[in-house]
């Protein structure tokens, strides 16, 4: 699984550099995000999913787990995607009522700073 992590003034940014978020990598991503959130000394996280072209229910489950873990830390989590397929999937599953979505990392940073 290809990813990298950056920091922007205390906001962790997790760049997921894969085109698929499905059963082939969702377990690995869940483990990485769980470890990062549980062991990290931060409250705010951006997960950049902008390269994803394919996502299944196991991938959506990872997003919900990360959201729950950050909520437990009383932090903010923003997912970044500009993919029409991902946005449609999130809307069809009504996860847009639970997850915060931004079109770019810059927009996500602004959303977190506004909270």
Number of strands: 7
Task: Give the termini distance in whole angstroms.
Answer: 31 Å
Number of domains: 1
Give the spatial strand order of the biggest sheet: 1-2-4-6-7
Low-pLDDT segments, ≥5 res: none
Q: How much of the sequence is in beta strands?
A: 25-35%
Radius of gyration over alpha carbons? 13 Å
Mean pLDDT: 95
CATH architecture, by name, is: 2-Layer Sandwich
Helices and strands, in N-to-C order?
EEEHEEHEHEH
Largest sheet: 5 strands, mixed
- What's the CATH class, please? Alpha Beta
Helix content: 40-55%
Class by SSE composition? alpha/beta
Shape: globular
List the total number of helices. 4
What is the fourth-level CATH superfamily?
STAS domain
CATH topology: Transcription Regulator spoIIAA
Write the layout of secondary structure elements.
Elements: E1 3-8, E2 11-16, E3 20-21, H1 26-39, E4 44-48, E5 54-55, H2 57-72, E6 76-80, H3 84-92, E7 100-102, H4 105-114
Parallel strand pairs: 2-4, 3-5, 4-6, 6-7
Antiparallel strand pairs: 1-2
Helix pairs in contact: 1-2
Describe this structure in words.
With 115 residues, this protein is α/β, with parallel strands linked by helices. It has a single domain (3-114), classed as STAS domain (Transcription Regulator spoIIAA, 2-Layer Sandwich). The chain has helices at residues 26-39, 57-72, 84-92, 105-114, and strands at residues 3-8, 11-16, 20-21, 44-48, 54-55, 76-80, 100-102. The strands form 2 sheets. Strands 1-2-4-6-7 form a 5-stranded mixed beta sheet. Strands 3-5 form a two-stranded parallel ribbon. The protein is globular, with a radius of gyration of 13 Å. The model has no long low-confidence stretch (mean pLDDT 95).
């Amino acid at each position: 699984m290809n990813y990298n992590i950056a920091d922007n003034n205390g906001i962790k940014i997790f760049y997921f550099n894969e085109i698929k978020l499905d059963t082939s990598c969702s377990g690995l991503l869940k483990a990485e995000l769980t470890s990062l959130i549980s062991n990290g000394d931060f409250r705010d996280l951006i997960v950049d999913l902008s390269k994803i072209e394919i996502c299944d229910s196991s991938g959506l489950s990872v997003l919900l787990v990360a959201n729950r873990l950050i909520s437990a830390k009383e932090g903010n989590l923003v997912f970044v995607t500009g993919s029409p397929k991902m946005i449609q999937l999130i809307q069809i599953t009504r996860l847009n009522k639970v997850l915060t979505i931004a079109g770019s990392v810059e927009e996500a940073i602004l959303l977190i700073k506004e909270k």
